[in-house]
Every structure is written in C-alpha cells, then in structure tokens.
Amino acid sequence: MFGIFSKKNRCLGVDLGTTGIKIVELKKENNLPVFVNYAISYDSGALLQSSGLELLDGQAKDILSKVLKEGGFTTKNAAIGIPGFFSLIFFVELPEMPDAEIEQAVKFEAAKYIPTPIEEVSLGWEAIGSVQEKSFEGGQPSSQSRKMQVMVVSVPKSTTVKYGGIVKSVKLSLKAMEVENFAVARAIIGNDKGTFMIVNIGAKATDFTVVSDGVVRITRNIDVGGAEISRSLASGFGIDLERADKLKKSGRVNLLDPQNDTTRLIGPAVGIIIDEMKRLREMYHKKSPLKKIEKMIFTGGTSKMATLTDYFARETGMECQIGNPLARIGVDKKQQAVVEAVSPELAVAIGLAMRGIEIE
To answer: Which of 15, 32, 140, 167 lies in disulfide reach of 348, CB 3.0 to 4.6 Å?
Structure first.
C-alpha cells in the first residue's frame, strides 16, 4: 500500500510541537529500528494558539512542508503524534469475550467516561491483562470468572481530522496516529519491568506518564513548560526571550544554589512541575500500593538544563535521570555524538517512528 511512496520498512516520526517541528526517520534492519535522519525546526514561532492550544494548521502545513523538503528524507511513510492534552485515557473491565464483540462493549463503557457524544470521538483500545473476580451467592464464593482490563484512548474526531489533513497536505502517507505519551513511553521505557514516571517538558506544556511493566497507567499534562521558564528569566533580568532561552541552556544555571538569581526567578514555574509530580505519585501509590514508582525520567529540550534533574531529585526525594530515547534503536557511530546532543528533544518523534515501522 505504501511502497509506491517510499523505500520499504522506513517511517518518519512527526512531532508537531508547540513551538517547533521535530522529524525522525527510522528504518527496520535485521528486525531492529535504526536511525537514518532527523530535522528540527525552531523558527516556527507558535504552532499552537495560546488559548486552548489549538493547532494553527495552515502555519503547521507550511513549516512542515519546508522541513520535509530541506531534510532530505527518503520515505513518505509517516506516524504523527497527537498532544496528550487532546486525549482522554481510561481503563475499563469487561468479561472475557471474542474480539469481534469488544469494540461494541468498549463504546458502551466509554460513554460513561466521555463528556461529549460518542460519535464525536475516535476511540482506540487495547486489552492489557486480566483480573480474577469472585462471584458470591448467599455470601459465599460460588465460582470464579475472569475479566479483562482494557485501556481506552479517546481523541476528538475534529483533532484526528485536522492532524490527518496536515499529513495529507504535505503528501505524506499516514501509517499511524498516536497520542504522544505512548510514543515517549515506547522510546524511553519500552517493555522494561518496573514502574516509572516520565516527565516530558515541552515548550508550552509538560506531560506526565506513569508506566508500569511497559503499560501506560496514568497520563496528565499542565500548561507550564520550558517557555514559561524562559519568560521568567527574561522578565527578571530584563532581557529578550532569545537571550533568556540561551541562558537557560548555557549551563550557568545552578538550581542547587538558593542564592542564585536564576533559581529565584524560575522557582515558581519549576515548582508547579514538582507539585504535579508529587500529586501524581501519591495518586498512583494510593491506587496501586504494591507498585511504587521507582524512578522519575525526564525528556524534552528543557530536561538538558544544568542541575535540573538533581534539583528535582532533592525536592521529591526520588531518583531522577534524563531518559535515553536512543537506547532501543541503532545509531551509526559517525552520527552518535550529534544525535545524543539533541535526543531528549526527539523522544516523541523517535517513539512515533518506531511505531510506524512496526506496522507492515
């Protein structure tokens, strides 16, 4: 179906960020994903409106077309990410039933969670396990039956139509459309055993994803990200945003020094992220007391900020580290240093491309 557009077993992961576009091309080689090429555009201004974070699709099409043209990519196959703030993810339990019947059952259950008419959303689901349930008659257990746990993802159809239209407008062939939280989890965690919280600090929003034994369990997002940190520095030092952004990335910020001016200025923005991390950790531990979150893993461009993970570790009492989205793909030694430098910003795009080459 897609062979007329591209070399076989290759896919682009397209991340339409709030202030830039990231694209990664992967290929399948010996049944493993291998890095081919990437492109990052930071000259897009704001791809999303500040109110409601609604995609400015006309602007996105123009910039995406330019990046694709200049990037020298070898495939038209693409997987595109949907920001987490457009999605609703929840879990339902259903009696074991044939796959043909699950879809109707999911729709019926989903109507209880979704505030809009079911006809206005696109639903995706995946059975992620089963639970044992005891039936009681007269107060005594009489039999045992199994129920399956199903993860359901809901995205407004208006959103999927818009993102699909952008892909079509630049003559890409859409292989997959996926909520960004799942793409990040694939790139950073894969099927690793254990329970982790991924904190993806984007420009205008931060996504939180709790992953346990390779399965996404909780997702949340807040409207605070790297741009808010840059604005705090710009306002406090009386400099423009460009200089503030360079300062943020310069290595001169020491969040572990309470007397440092930058610590004082960005403390409130970073504090909001920390508060949400703590809140989600407590929420998850109450829900799943036997599966404690073992580690906080950071990604996104701002995660490279000097002393940031050390500061988060001190404030939360948790082990914190920067995620490595290259751990599950092959990278040529000649490209290694360059790709490693930008890899935290490419986590979503890498995860999407991995998803794309999984689909034959």
So the answer is: 15
